[in-house]
Amino acid sequence: MARKFISGNDAVAEGVRLARPHVISAYPITPQTIVVERLSDFCEDGSLKAIYMHVESEHSALAAAMGVSSVGARAFTATSSQGLLYMAENLPYASGARMPIVMMNANRALATPWNIYGDQMDSMFLLNAGWIQVYVEDAQEALDMMIQSYKIAEDPRVMTPFMVNLDGFVLTHTYEVVDVPEQELVDAYLPPLKLAENMMSLEAPKSLCITAGNNFNMEFKIKQNEEMNASTAIIAEVDASFAEVFGRKYHGLLEAIACDDAEVILITTGSVAGTSRMIIEEYRNKGHKVGLIKLRYLRPFPTEALAKVLKDAKAVGVVDKNISFGYEGTIFTNVNSAILQSGLTPKVHNFICGLGGRDVTKENIREMFDALLSSAAGDSCEKIHYMNVRCAL
Amino acid sequence: MARKFISGNDAVAEGVRLARPHVISAYPITPQTIVVERLSDFCEDGSLKAIYMHVESEHSALAAAMGVSSVGARAFTATSSQGLLYMAENLPYASGARMPIVMMNANRALATPWNIYGDQMDSMFLLNAGWIQVYVEDAQEALDMMIQSYKIAEDPRVMTPFMVNLDGFVLTHTYEVVDVPEQELVDAYLPPLKLAENMMSLEAPKSLCITAGNNFNMEFKIKQNEEMNASTAIIAEVDASFAEVFGRKYHGLLEAIACDDAEVILITTGSVAGTSRMIIEEYRNKGHKVGLIKLRYLRPFPTEALAKVLKDAKAVGVVDKNISFGYEGTIFTNVNSAILQSGLTPKVHNFICGLGGRDVTKENIREMFDALLSSAAGDSCEKIHYMNVRCAL
Amino acid sequence: MNKPKMKSFTEPKTVTDYPLGATCPSDHITSINAGWRTYRPVIDQEKCVLCMRCFLVCPDGVIDKSSDRLEIDYDFCKGCGVCAYECKPKAIKMVKEAEFNG
Amino acid sequence: MNKPKMKSFTEPKTVTDYPLGATCPSDHITSINAGWRTYRPVIDQEKCVLCMRCFLVCPDGVIDKSSDRLEIDYDFCKGCGVCAYECKPKAIKMVKEAEFNG
Amino acid sequence: MIEVRWHGRGGQGSFTVARLLGLAASVYGGKYAQAFPSFGPERRGAPVLGFTRIDDVKIGDRSELDGCDYVVVLDETLWGNDVLSGLKDDSIVIINTKDETKYKSETSHCIIAIDATQLALDYLGIPITNTAMLGALVGASKIVDPAHCIDAIRASMAPKIAQKNVDLFNHVYGEVNSCE
Amino acid sequence: MIEVRWHGRGGQGSFTVARLLGLAASVYGGKYAQAFPSFGPERRGAPVLGFTRIDDVKIGDRSELDGCDYVVVLDETLWGNDVLSGLKDDSIVIINTKDETKYKSETSHCIIAIDATQLALDYLGIPITNTAMLGALVGASKIVDPAHCIDAIRASMAPKIAQKNVDLFNHVYGEVNSCE
Amino acid sequence: MMPKITAKNLTNDELFYGHKACGGCGESLAVRLAMKILGERTFASLPAGCMSAVSFIYPNMAFKTNAIITPFASTGAVAAGVAAGLKALGIENTYSVGFAGDGGTADIGLQALSGAIDRGDQIIYFCNDNEAYMNTGIQKSGLTPYGTRTTTSPAGENLPGSVTTKKNMFEIVAAHDIAYAATASVGYLEDYMMKVEKAKSVKGTSYIHILAPCPTGWGTPSEITISLAKEAVDCGLWYLAEYENGEFKLNKDPKAFTPVADYVKKQGRFKHLTETDIEHLETQRDKKWLKMRRDWNK
Amino acid sequence: MMPKITAKNLTNDELFYGHKACGGCGESLAVRLAMKILGERTFASLPAGCMSAVSFIYPNMAFKTNAIITPFASTGAVAAGVAAGLKALGIENTYSVGFAGDGGTADIGLQALSGAIDRGDQIIYFCNDNEAYMNTGIQKSGLTPYGTRTTTSPAGENLPGSVTTKKNMFEIVAAHDIAYAATASVGYLEDYMMKVEKAKSVKGTSYIHILAPCPTGWGTPSEITISLAKEAVDCGLWYLAEYENGEFKLNKDPKAFTPVADYVKKQGRFKHLTETDIEHLETQRDKKWLKMRRDWNK
Ligand SMILES: Cc1ncc(C[n+]2csc(CCOP(=O)(O)OP(=O)(O)O)c2C)c(N)n1
Ligand SMILES: Cc1ncc(C[n+]2csc(CCOP(=O)(O)OP(=O)(O)O)c2C)c(N)n1
Ligand code: SF4
Ligand code: SF4
Ligand code: SF4
Ligand code: SF4
Ligand code: SF4
Ligand code: SF4
Ligand SMILES: [Mg+2]
Ligand SMILES: [Mg+2]
Q1: Contact H226 D25 (CB under 8 A)
Q2: Number of compact structural domains in chain E
């Protein structure tokens, strides 16, 4: 194991190198670029024996990865924002075909206005794509998830493409200490991809990405949904086996922090979870019964896990670095549905923040907890809070 | 006024002709094609004075429409399914720029598997795009909404692109009686587009689709969200003024049918609303307190209107012609969030049907009402029901 | 014979039994192109000089040359008439299908 | 002068006051490219033969030829040195910016 | 509500006639109607279906036909299970054939037979049988006024071709009997 | 937690040094660190910032610095409000200049001045001042062990260049005083 | 020299069988013959279009070899990915092949094709050119000739059908300095098969552009597909050529052309063309041949 | 003949001012001069890339005329839409112009450009070629020359930098039989300005491909931008040509080339090249010129 002081993007590249994909096809876009730059270095210096394809667009980046995956080779791609949307057509394409492609997405705002900084509008846009979506909190988790992601995606019970999301700049461009595991350990943990029913081979020629008319189509989709929902178990399983081998665990679908007796709970994803950890300590020290959820997976959505943690909360806040225009934050909508179905009736609040790279300050997190506490105490307050706005509405 | 026996696609084309766009840019895809075929006929025969651009892809179809709209001309495009996803990048682009483009989308399943029939996975994919989304029930509504859509989209308070969705085949290819209004009436109702602040002109040169860094970006997005939410009022206003001129009204954001004393309510969109109307009558005749909502707009989402109608319901069912893999039907998720925030606690059920063009039968609708009635009566039953599946799970 | 073996298709009994992904084995024809034809190509073996042009030009590949006389796979022949049109010695006749139905 | 008039920018007071769409008037420079330079181009008007090459080649267009001698808009000159490098009579010198700061 | 199913092959105009019937019933007959095709990835030559629904009130139903009152078969080679599926007891089958005996022996439903191909060749010079079969359906069922059918034909075709089709329609309409 | 802000221009290596400090503190010093840049659409020549955070425990905080303990200015032409913003009372400002008088007159904060450009020219032959400024920061603050800085420099550069930078670092480190 | 492939020595094995294309479909013949020459170790990538629509209808699969439908825009990229995947896995002696329509090549798939050529990916790309978007019902594509009536380029009082000319795909591909490119026609099948055979041993990307009449879209009787495709070449509206080692070559340079009018009048899509329109087509043809003869006959 | 535009008679008005490009940026000079010649009634469409990134930073807008940033892939389509909108509104005597980078033209924007040319849209399209994706930090594009070190085509023990050659964009565009196309260089500015002036009166689509050095990405001192761009032409690695009325023309046909080594050694991106690599570049160059001279000098 080597300790390195590297950025989130570097950590992704290190993780990918350890996972030994056969082909990398990607197109540059800020703030993802460093990942593919490092990977092209690794391909050049031979430390990664992979073919690097300089594709001419993101649509082709994922299309090429599909070609790679269709013959049973391991594929990696990475993108962000406009690039993710430019390849949008191919995401449900790959998931319907159940191709275990791994993609790193550097979360970034969507034009227009143009903006290269981090928010999560891009990946929230793709929630319906049939891809597993995980959001990581730091560079270490980013590296580790490159390994876990292939392990989960290629599990015969899952066979589903996997998107690993890093908050743009705040994670992708921040350097921190990362432990890089030994190649041998990873090799033992993540054996080469085994040829599956949905892959082409000379021995048993296959037709892929076929047509299923109105007579058969619905059953294909139901199967996909049922198996994706069932992947929650494999996600937990892999996180546990990973912990055994590498000594780090991430608590599967979500991590609950100080939630046991919490009266108010804040739900966060990605880097905001990190900042919130500090504040939760501060508030607990002051005697407030506050809890924090780090929601790691948005698909499959952890309905049950969430219900369990939230069951005694009086007020629940959801942090969204995105808006579904004409409604509310997307995570808020998703969480609310799970809450309603669980029969819980906490007060719910949506904290919209960090759009276009706007700083999410420690003070903002305090404001959120304060709002939740006063809501739990019975005060009525706004459902939707925009945080850190530079002027009045 | 002329009565015609035409298809939903024909009706769209007639409506577009009446709305007099300056430029049509579109790319063929089943089941949208007939719309653009008719429009190219109209451009040829001179009954529509518009430029028809044979673009080389959907991404360019919407990009060209953005160019058209950016100088203050009226733009129309149409697409479906793969085409809608291929232009995905440009949807938030146009909405961020607040361009009042109108698009017809023929709802169709997404590959893979390939399938040309109707479900709503395509437009549900784009809910976060910042476009107004309406779903119509029949050819007449399709025609009428082409006129209303420009009226709403171009309202200075709204200035937002508009997507009109028709269920593929079931609406696009079904012929029925449609009243085609007089051009003069439409001209009076829908005057030419007025140059707005976000359009280029020689008199006041503009820079469009600019960059707003982390210092200013968030405010742009909040403005967009607030004004999109506020467009609910204009939608209702336009529906009312339309009714005055043309004698037909659609009840704005949603239509509530027999909901006043309903104990169970089924929420539908598009063509399923039509079939359900028959069944609701049948069940009411049998004395069941059943109600029906035809949800017309998904963005802006009619949170308040919905809460008002649902307030006394004991069980609510949501019909989804889509799945967000790894979770549930997308409309279900959206409706549930609104219900939770309204403080209501009905039992909620999701009926997933019609995927890949699977028939939604009258019997299916009866099964839905039966499930809701038994749920309201206290029986526990599944949250998610797949309807009309040809084999066991 | 150049015709692939027909596969029997048993519909999956459960959703779980459906293929993984949008997949199907290749070389998997489960039903014939029944009744697409209005006319049926009939080879006059006497006239045929075995030039193999019809074999070459048939878009559906239904003319088999593995034996010493050509055979047409009528399960998949669409009756397009290309073979007859292209046969120089006019050894193929397009005959109204109905006459065979009777 | 070829330099556009600087616009004063008052930040919108409310979200509603923000532009409609991702829009801004063109010809809208609100702040100078302050302090990008390490070196400053200085024209020796004696040596200058008014060939206008520097005017032509300046990527930033900061050399103005509207009067009878060239003027450089130092608010936007980036000190790239292209003008000096391309001036045949060597009429432009690149002078360390610090010397002007003092 | 009256529901009609049309069986033909891609290229034979079976959906066009489904549409003509709906047009006749609605725009000219003052009723409500729906007409829609079946679609598949198969090409010209493959079997296709057309559907017409007619009712006195607006038709909200968007589901497929689950039964039908009339089945019209433009091409007798399509005879088989598909044609006979979903019939009610009193449904009527109208088929384009020279010889009805085979079909009568295979079903108990009322069969109306007409040699539409020959008549189409006589009247139009080409074997496009859809207006002939419309004549047979309307003659046997009286579900719409024949004058409205003629209006529909005239509105949908160039005048010269329309006239020939009207003549053909009239001929068949006059000749066909309703089910005994 | 110690927070350091670096001011420079695109191309001057101000983020590289932010990173070197983090590397020294963490991988070599056994503490935890974060280093991150500010980014903007402006190009080479435009002002940029770098940040370093150092702590004894894992740093979860992902928000921007809201105050900082040390400000290091690689290019004195950047002097101004941006440099002085967000300082605590006891924050220290380290600036690359020949002449500190101007700066001392404009702030009450402790100013450490060093002619890093001249020293860089002497040691490296080019005016890249970032390792010199690292030496100044560490010399004045002792926030990390200088040996760890040297390790970090050696790990990040080709040996020949590294040695020169180490010499430069050592020179400055030895010369700088802490704030009185 | 390669042994000539003829009807007689062509394998009897069919690798593309039972598809649901229209009777007399030119494209399906082009695919069928290519597959016979490429053989069982072929991996075929087909974008949306008639050929994929008629060949992968669950549970009926017409390809005997490995095959995949690609997104409409992605033939070049998926085929390149397949080639890269096979290479990385060490699976040798295979062909990664794309079969796209004219729309899927010259319009929405152009970029992915260009990218593959630029990278020199080891693929053989076929453009099956029936001069319109047929799968969606005969809309104008970038390869639809001037004067063609399609459903989006109607012919009427104001327009003569398509007003743009056919994109020069072959020249565009050649301008990439591709390893091998050729035009072909289902009217000249031995020439076509020779070109497919040639492509098999090319190092880098190959491109074969084959004119393949579509009875449905062209408004022609199904039996004349082959002879019409031959006539397209004989009347000079299409041409047989190759680009190899950086040089163009005309494979067939007719002394005299058969009349364009004869070719055109057989087809419903051109029925509306006037004498003047036809003369216009001839002028265009002559201009093109003048240049081809001057520049390509070295 | 058009009056020649020179430094002296060129307008003093600046329509592109205050942008945040690097000092000495070749692209920004190309845009600046084009705008001066095109004038105030220009509508500029710029995709993602350095030029848009540095010119539309709210609230600082560097264009004086109407201007719009387009999606990266959409320069051709947005500019065509602007042209169509203006035409439909009857707003005359305007220019709809696209300014895209090499990546935005030859890679992700190729298809939209091709579509516009195919339709004959009334736009002028500029490809500002700095031979890499600069805005994202110097990645290899389809127009990056052989042997270039970029962040995605590293030079090291196993690779000499980019292993593919520069896509022949000019020829690809010409193969579309575009109304007017030209190459240019910021090292030959009068030639460039003449070409821009020419494009103004073309009916249909024009394309101008200008080589524009990027000090940051090329690893060169900012002051040599112009002379380096001149040297690129003088050493024969770039060329000045036009395509008009269906014919190519070489505008400059040097008797002798200056040494490629001199050009290359000035640049950080080529620092690693060996003698053999440079010879390889020269061989490639000679092959290209042989063909250009043979085929274009009619
Ligand atoms: C992104 C996208 N846009 C549009 C379509 C619809 N579509 C499918 S096939 C097709 C036409 C294919 O035309 P061509 O490539 O010429 O092949 P052909 O059908 O003529 O063989 C179209 C427009 C699609 N599948 N995907
Ligand atoms: C769809 C999409 N993919 C990627 C990007 C990221 N991106 C923005 S500019 C750029 C590079 C531009 O390169 P080029 O076109 O050569 O212009 P230059 O910056 O060199 O002037 C890239 C990759 C984007 N904005 N959109
Ligand atoms: S083309 Fe005619 S002669 Fe030749 S093999 Fe076929 S049937 Fe025989
Ligand atoms: S009729 Fe057509 S399908 Fe049948 S054998 Fe002849 S060519 Fe083949
Ligand atoms: S280039 Fe030199 S001589 Fe010419 S105008 Fe400029 S300063 Fe004067
Ligand atoms: S130094 Fe550069 S920016 Fe300044 S005037 Fe000279 S050329 Fe223009
Ligand atoms: S429509 Fe044309 S291309 Fe498509 S299958 Fe039929 S004949 Fe072939
Ligand atoms: S990076 Fe290059 S192209 Fe971009 S602004 Fe700087 S010099 Fe110009
Ligand atoms: Mg085609
Ligand atoms: Mg570039």
Answers
A1: no
A2: 1
Contact B258, B233 (CB under 8 A): no
CATH code of the domain made up of B254-386: 3.40.50.920
Judge whether H260 and H236 are in contact, CB under 8 Å: yes
Taking the C-alpha atoms of residue F130 and residue F8, their distance in angstroms, rounded to an integer, is 9
- Digit-by-digit pLDDT tens for chain H (298 residues) are 677 999 999 999 999 999 999 999 999 999 999 999 999 999 999 999 999 999 999 999 999 999 999 999 999 999 999 999 999 999 999 999 999 999 999 999 999 999 999 999 999 999 999 999 999 999 999 999 999 999 999 999 999 999 999 999 999 999 999 999 999 999 999 999 999 999 999 999 999 999 999 999 999 999 999 999 999 999 999 999 999 999 999 999 999 999 999 999 999 999 999 999 999 999 999 999 999 999 998 6
**Using an 8 Å Cβ cutoff, are A198 and A205 in contact?**
no
Question: What would you report as the CA-atom Rg of chain C, rounded to the nearest whole angstrom?
Answer: 17
CA distance A340 to A329: 17
Closest CB from D25, D31, D59 relative to H24:
D59
CATH number of the domain residue D52 falls in: 3.30.70.20
Question: How far is the C-alpha of E1 from the C-alpha of E56, rounded, in Å?
Answer: 7
- The reply to whether D6 falls in a domain is no
Whole-angstrom Cα distance, residue A112 to residue B209? 6
Is any Cβ of chain D less than 8 angstroms from the Cβ of A325?
no
Give the closest ligand to the alpha carbon of residue H7.
Answer: 5
Q: Would you say the CB of residue H270 lies under 6 angstroms from ligand 2?
A: no
Compare all CA atoms of chain A with the CA of D14 and give the residue at the minimum distance. A392
Q: Which residue has a Cα nearest atom 2 of ligand 6?
A: D80
What pLDDT digit, counting tens, does each position of A1-60 carry? 799 999 999 999 999 999 999 999 999 999 999 999 999 999 999 999 999 999 999 999
Q: What's residue D1's pLDDT?
A: 67
pLDDT, position C102: 40
Q: Is residue F180 part of a domain?
A: no
Residue spans per domain, chain H: 26-296
Q: DSSP labels for E6-64? A: EEEETTS-HHHHHHHHHHIIIIITSSEEEEEE---S--TTSEEEEEEEEESS-----SP
Contact with chain E for residue G22, Cβ under 8 A: yes
Q: How far is the CA of G25 from the centre of ligand 7 (A)?
A: 5
Instruction: Please give the model's pTM, rounded to 2 decimal places.
Output: 0.98
Range H26-296 classified under CATH 2.40.30.10 = no
Check H118 against G295: CB less than 8 A apart. Answer: no
Calpha distance E33→B139 (Å, rounded):
12
What part of H 68-97 touches G (C-beta under 8 Å)?
none
With the most atoms of ligand 7 within 8 angstroms of its CB, the residue from G27, G99, G128, G129 to mutate is G27
Q: Does B356 touch chain G (CB under 8 A)?
A: no
SS3 G169: helix
Residue C78 maps to a domain: yes
The mean pLDDT value of chain B amounts to 97
pLDDT tens digit string along A181-238?
A: 999 999 999 999 999 999 999 999 999 999 999 999 999 999 999 999 999 999 999 9
Q: Name the average pLDDT for chain H.
A: 97
Closest Cβ–Cβ partner in A40, A82, A86 for H152: A40
Contact B131, B162 (CB under 8 A): yes
Nearest-Cα distance to chain F for D38, in Å, is 8
Is D46 a domain residue?
yes
For chain G, positions 92-131, list CB contacts with chain H under 8 A: 106-108, 110-111, 114-115, 118-120
Q: How many domains does chain C have?
A: 1
- In this complex, whether E and D touch, counting 3 or more CB pairs under 8 angstroms, is no
Task: Confirm whether E180 is domain-assigned.
Answer: no
Q: What pLDDT digit, counting tens, does each position of B299-353 carry?
A: 999 999 999 999 999 999 999 999 999 999 999 999 999 999 999 999 999 999 9
**pLDDT at position C99, please?**
66
Give the separation between CA C6 and CA C32, rounded to whole angstroms. 8
Q: Domain residues of chain B, as ranges?
A: 2-246, 254-386
- C4 occurs within a structural domain: no
